[in-house]
Amino acid sequence: MKKYILPLIIVVLLFMIPLQFKKKTSPKEEVTEEECEVSITFAESNEALPLEQYLVGVLAGEMPASFELEALKAQAIAARTYAIHQTNYGTSPIMQTTAHQVYKEELNSKYEKKLKRAVKETKNQILTYNGEPITAMFHAASNGQTETSENFSGTQIAYLTTVSSPEDYTDSKSITLAQFNQALQGNFTFGQIKQAKMTRNSTNRVETITIGNRSWQGREFRELLQLKSADFSITVDQQVHIETKGYGHGVGMSQYGAEALAAGGKTAEEIVQYYYPNTKLEQLACSK
To answer: Strand 197-200 vs strand 206-211: parallel, antiparallel, or unpaired?
Structure first.
């Protein structure tokens, strides 16, 4: 009988070993993919937040929470990419204002779950060009077509080119002649304003405007008069009336355009790759 004990023990051990390996790799205990622990530090307070938590506040600050989920997800991807590029993977601080990205700490309880879902469903997704995170510029609304980086800054960037955008966003403001002159530090007459000469760029935004013997770049004129867009027109009667199309600098993704595309059935991936052509949607690497 003894001669059978040793073979029996060996057989039992051989049976148990696979069970031990199976137990260690059960679904509940299997090792997950390495998490990227990027922290974003605020320049104003030196406070640091995990990237994904930071993005929830950026969505609340940068896009209406009532927008379609796919538009919010597109914004999350753009904002994540922008933050990674701007902070060099969290090694430099970022501002909480429009100088970089608006961050809102207090969340509307009605939309909190939706904002968190938009971030969660795009976790670690960023846009790259030639393997590097892009400068994911975005703006509120286009004038019908987005602005090119070349028109905006003089530098051509392959993924910041012009594409048509479906939203229709217009605005108008009327000011007195005195207010107009105060903003421009001038002494212009209604007649001079009426005869203003403008040149426009390839996306129909004002490149230069000349009134009397003074000239401004369209973007400078927009800032001085606090206009929504550099695509503007001027009429006069007893006041100066200025009509604008679009809202913001116009470069990169249009937020209202993203909303229109999402309402039409486009996914977040389709939206970002439309507004940032020639880019790839990839998972954030855990190191530079």
So the answer is: antiparallel
